[in-house]
Amino acid sequence: MKQHQVTIKDIAKALDISVSTVSRALKDHPDINKETRKLVKETARQMKYEPNLLALGLRRNKSNTIGIIIPEIVHHFFSSVISGIEDYAYERGYNVMVCQSNENYNREIINAQALLSSRVDGVLISVSKSTLDFNHFRNFITQGIPMVFFDRVCPDIVTDRVIIDDEGGAFLATEHLINIGCKRIAHFAAPQNLLIAQGRFSGYQRALRQNSIPFDPKLVLHCDTQELAFEKTGKFLEEFPDTDGIFAVNDSTAIAIMQVIKKMSKRVPDDISVIGFGDGPNALIACPTLSTIEQKGYEMGTEAVNFLFNKIENDISADSFKTKVLIPTLVKRESTDRRK
Amino acid sequence: MKQHQVTIKDIAKALDISVSTVSRALKDHPDINKETRKLVKETARQMKYEPNLLALGLRRNKSNTIGIIIPEIVHHFFSSVISGIEDYAYERGYNVMVCQSNENYNREIINAQALLSSRVDGVLISVSKSTLDFNHFRNFITQGIPMVFFDRVCPDIVTDRVIIDDEGGAFLATEHLINIGCKRIAHFAAPQNLLIAQGRFSGYQRALRQNSIPFDPKLVLHCDTQELAFEKTGKFLEEFPDTDGIFAVNDSTAIAIMQVIKKMSKRVPDDISVIGFGDGPNALIACPTLSTIEQKGYEMGTEAVNFLFNKIENDISADSFKTKVLIPTLVKRESTDRRK
DNA sequence: ATGAAAGCGCTAACAG
DNA sequence: CTGTTAGCGCTTTCAT
Lengths: 340, 340
Known about the structure:
Chain A is α/β, with parallel strands linked by helices.
């Protein structure tokens, strides 16, 4: 059974002084006698006093907690972001509450409510694939709770944002395929309601255009997971056997595509070159190693939480909103290496 | 700036009734008139009322939050555990506070304090590699806060535990190497202060013993990360060129070992067979695909949090402690497939 | 069926 | 330098 945890009242009683003296002594209030302060602190230590954050939060209307809503934790990119957020929050003395939406809109709504109820001081959000309506996020704004979107941002809501230059990254990826000689380049894309998916698609198109390669909508399909790749790649390549390059919207899809290609006894990169997006650890493990676009998750986390703390701690500039765009870089590996 | 969030007081004022009526109406207290209840609930909805969990927690001495202390979030196994915990906690209406120790003892102490201050209702812990003293965890016991260790458990403290049968898993792995014909089997191990490392080492030894293969301490080395594997594998294999099997304490080490072996122009599995432990997604991506021991992270998370809720919600059996042992299974893949 | 008031742990006027 | 008191939002006796 949960015990009564030591309170300042207990300390006060033990020393026969008032709670306010204890409170002040613990936080080095200048008015307090040095002797008293020392005594109080020592007693607190002995009694294993830990301040009650619930009480403090109630009093100050500040929980010292930030919330995260993220599609899924088990994903190298997202867990890297969380790690960055956690490390930075730790330095600043904040706790982190993590909610995963599991790409589910309804769960995202409940997550938002939970964070509202927990009176978090700020939220960091990456929206679920299935989310089309964003009103559940507006409540944070109404309540004056700072909110920063990262990666999967919300198009309709004006807030701070940390994003990758998806368009630019996709452009780099596609142009790289063109440079190594690919003529018929397919794009395995994510659902177009996500801005990141739109950006990557645009970058792909721009690269084709700038290199005078005709855009063929048949070469673009919705396929953004390993499972879908296993399901669709075979049929796709039978239907379009002249495909000689594939730009996949993420690494795990790209790797699955390569595995299917290998099973079909075609070779990567010689018959079909493949490039992904993300540069997780898998890219280096895959055979051939996967060319991809580097996307710094940890850095995205620290940048996002940095924006958040700026808003939380100086509520002055509360209505100027910034967008930080992280510039991705091309990582060339074996899956696009045709020099032979 | 953080706004005043709507309270029951605001609702009471709006309807010109007392706060106690509002409170009761919101939680379907039988004494309340149906009309009133309906009215209150409707008004609450309109005013976007969200109960203040800080106040509730203070009042009830229960935060509806559970804490996790974990070595690192960016790790497939651990993030799977968190995911399991989060999903289950979500179902039960609990929030999850995540702290990562980054394998750092001092940070683990501070994490524990933070969770104590946040008055979490229970904690789930996997200890850091560098932790040798466990007194910071005892405070949870003193405070009557249920605690469950998972995977990296604490040897000295009596609590609920969820572990993998590491000894058994390691036995399976090693015996599999023996069965396919390996004679000189090395073990790339983790620091022996971790119980899991001890277990895996013992399983390795038992398999050798039961198969009458002499145990050679020179074939055991501390090497439990990708980096260490890149650094040490080459030298090791030069020194012991007759090594024909390696059991690595985890998958990422095993995969790095295979990469080094390939660079040395030896073949896996024919010259040296390799087996890992964990069965993360990497095992399937590696070339050759990695034989390994399956370790169910998500299930470990749900089991652990299930133990925790039993303790939290029926504080009756508060001093009977259970240990759940998850039985790992052998997954045979190409890295140990010598049938040719 | 509803209201008044106390109290959870803490801080911050205000008073001495 | 220290103590008294009110109040953060909520629940819960105890009245009515």
